[in-house]
Specification:
about 110 residues, alpha+beta, Ribosomal Protein S8, Chain: A, domain 1, 3-stranded antiparallel β-sheet, about 30% helix, globular, disordered C terminus
């Protein structure tokens, strides 16, 4: 179950934080994901223990083993790039997280 209240693993993990880039502002709900699903993926993929976004300061915290916290930040940034790059400014965003059929490249048919 995703955390609904701030409860970092104080004393049980290393800590890293970074300021959320301004360009993420409009996409932060997508970056975090429904019920935190994207932050949960980033936490699992990186081997971290906890990732949290502070809305009031736009700081993202990453908690985990010392050799994993940088990977946790990289995972969050990779998720954000997906949503930032998938929606050009001024156009409607694809909020499903999937490609539209027209965006799928046609396979090459070398003979």
């Amino acid at each position: 179950m995703p955390p609904t209240a701030y409860d970092p693993p104080l004393g049980r993990a290393h800590y890293r934080h970074f300021k959320m880039p301004d360009e993420w502002e409009d996409k932060m709900k997508l970056i975090i994901g429904r019920d935190g699903c994207n932050f949960i993926k980033a936490t699992r993929r990186s081997g971290c223990k906890y990732i949290w976004h502070h809305r009031d300061t736009n700081i993202i915290e990453v908690w985990g083993p010392i050799d994993k916290v940088m990977k946790g930040e990289k995972c969050v940034r990779a998720i954000a790039r997906k949503y930032i790059n998938d929606s050009p400014k001024g156009s409607a965003a694809n909020t499903t997280g999937t490609q539209d059929q027209k965006d799928v490249p046609t396979p090459s048919t070398d003979v």
